[in-house]
Amino acid sequence: MTAKLFLENPYQTSIDAVVTAVSENTVQFDKTIFYATSGGQPGDTGMLHVANQNIPVVTTKKGEGFEDIWHVLPEGTSLNIGDAVSGEIDWETRHKHMRMHTCLHLLCSLVVGDVTGGSVGADKGRLDFNLPAGALDKDDLIAKLNALIKADHPVSTEWITDADLDANPNLIRTMSVKPPMGSGKIRLVRIGTRENLVDLQPCGGTHVKSTGEIGPVTITKIENKGAQNRRVSLAFA
Ligand SMILES: [Zn+2]
Questions:
Q1: What confidence tens digit (pLDDT) does each residue in 86-108 have?
Q2: What structural domains does the chain harbor?
Q3: What is the pTM of this model?
């Protein structure tokens, strides 16, 4: 099991860790700051330092059941269990992922339809909504999105249990995504405050600490992808 430091502090850019598992050119550490590909957000890249070698991390992937995180090294490269490594993520790219990912939460809060898909990139992002044609007004959405960004709402995370959720059924009505039950613990990402809530939903991704950090964005297109599917594509303005 890999301790996922990016869940508590997505701003940590470097780490010292120990190799705990090896499979061909992929390695696991006791703890990591590298986000693993999931929820439409790409895995982190970066650099490892072992003895006097520099080894790139090409991407990062989840193992079985999300408990393990595999760092993918170049073909033919490997490490040994017990190796002490230091490393850093490609922060410039990751920070763009954090900004775009947080922006997709804001988009989600402005649109009534269920989210059926999405993806986060360094320069653009998109969400698919289960909505009929003509349900979204592009200019109106751009204005509302940038207003939420400019308002600089705080972004925070909290953990609740399945039992907490059962005891507070109201909570689920404020969420646009139903949390996965059964694992015992659910991580919620809150934008805004209890009194002035913008968005609250279960998410294991990385986010900026306040919406102002996203910066201005634009909607590049709203496409009709089937009778009940509207695809909204975003880019940094
Ligand atoms: Zn998220």
A1: 999 999 999 999 999 999 999 99
A2: 3-89 (2.40.30.130), 94-236 (3.30.980.10)
A3: 0.93
